[in-house]
Amino acid sequence: MNLPLRLILAGLFLIPLARTDAAEAAQTKPNVVIMIADDVSWNDFGCYGNPAARTPHIDALASRGLRFANAFLTASSCSPSRASIITGRYPHNLGRAAELHEPIAANLAWFPSVLRQTGYYTALVGKNHMTPEPPAAGQSRATKPWDLVDPGTTPDNHGAEARWTQTIKNRPKDKPFFCWFASLDAHRNWDADNEWVPENYGPKHQSEDVVVPPFLADEPATRQDLASYYNEVTRFDYFVGEVTQTLADEGELDNTLILVLADNGRPFPRAKTRLHDSGMKTALVAHWPNGIAEKGVSTSSLVSVIDIAPTVVDVAGAKMPPTFQGVSMTPIFQDADATIRRFAFSEHNWHDYEAHGRSVRDGEFLYIRNARPELAWQGPADSVRSPSHQTLRRMRDGEKLSEAQADVFLQPRPVEELYKTEDDPNQLNNLVSNSQYKQTKERLSKVLDQWTQETGDAVPDELTPDYFDRETGDSLKLGKGQKRKRGTPPGGPNDAIHIDHPGPR
Hints:
The protein is an alpha/beta fold. The protein folds into two domains: 29-342, Alkaline Phosphatase, subunit A; 347-475, Arylsulfatase, C-terminal domain (2-Layer Sandwich). The protein has 15 helices and 14 strands. The chain has helices at residues 5-14, 22-27, 56-64, 78-87, 111-117, 164-169, 198-201, 220-249, 277-280, 308-315, 330-334, 381-384, 387-397, 403-406, 438-455, and strands at 31-37, 66-68, 71-72, 121-126, 148-150, 177-182, 256-262, 284-287, 297-299, 303-304, 344-348, 357-361, 365-370, 416-420. The longest helix is centred in the middle third of the chain and has 30 residues, at 220-249. One of its GO terms (molecular function) is arylsulfatase activity. Residues 456-505 are annotated as: Disordered. This is Arylsulfatase.
């Protein structure tokens, strides 16, 4: 029988105490490396069943580690998702950061700050997109989260991965380290096509080989769009491999917890910003030879990305901030069948367009509630401008869309949606009016009500309006003297930045 993780870690921490070298004592703490892709759906890695995607390095980590089959984001939107991960809180509990490009409330703890105070060297290399609000008058400034911040791009690599391995090699050798390696792959526009290095990445993906989901058009422009997207995923994977090899070369691989995931779904119609699995489900691969008991297995345990912050603080042996709403995943590292939560909640707030949607999952069903049903969920502006979306638009005008494709433009939308996800992986069969699932709908609706109340969520009277045209993705023009308007953030009416209750878990 495997020892509990806390006992293993306790042993790791106690061994050096008989020595006089403080640096050796520090190095026994586990290192942590998070590699986060930008705009990549959960099923676009090979180890998650995509037969066309080339991700051999991520697949290798999964084969030696733990693959999470039910990991979910709190927001399928770049900065709210990252802010949620770094603070271990739901988007509406972050203040203005619930919406794209907005700062995180100043009173909230970031887990890299906790690690840094505990003696870790902390580095962010790549996409940041996380900023704190300045402290209010009389409020102390938050503890600095990073020893190093580096955008990571070079003239021949705009994926922001070029200096990841350098960061590990150049780190202080007398401290444990935490690295947040954040790729710009696979965010539009596609630069990997022009920066392709065949000896590193292999041949480019071909349009005839991609997997076209049923809500996109299976035609040349969309297939090429997907092939270019796959190229970005493969470039990200290459640097995941480079980091893994560098950790091995430095003798740190066994003592390093590696987490690989993405911030939101692919930047295509019916993915990014959506509450459905194509937007909100994430790949999550964990690799840690010293800390994961069962290697090369898949776990069906339900987890949320707000569980990452408490997990990292837990394995570092640091004190858990009271502001975290997530729960540590370490029991799953010791038993892949362990249960740490019954429910995972997600939000759809402003991302280029006015929106307010909420969802809850219980591992079998997905329940969605929409406070703005009169508005379409067409996806963010960069997706709307894409060849894939504009092809669907032309097909719509020619009345050639399938039911799955038409959902991209649907308005009004249902106020409620219910899906049995295993039977309906693309969530195309809404069961909300099916009498057979009446009790399930009522149960999950009550759970969502409880979460809304206990965490201080709200639907403000005035939400942030559209900034872009919903048909073209072009920026909406302002009149002379006008400024872009921001509405009330969703937790604003209830001062949710000061509510730490996690709701039902």
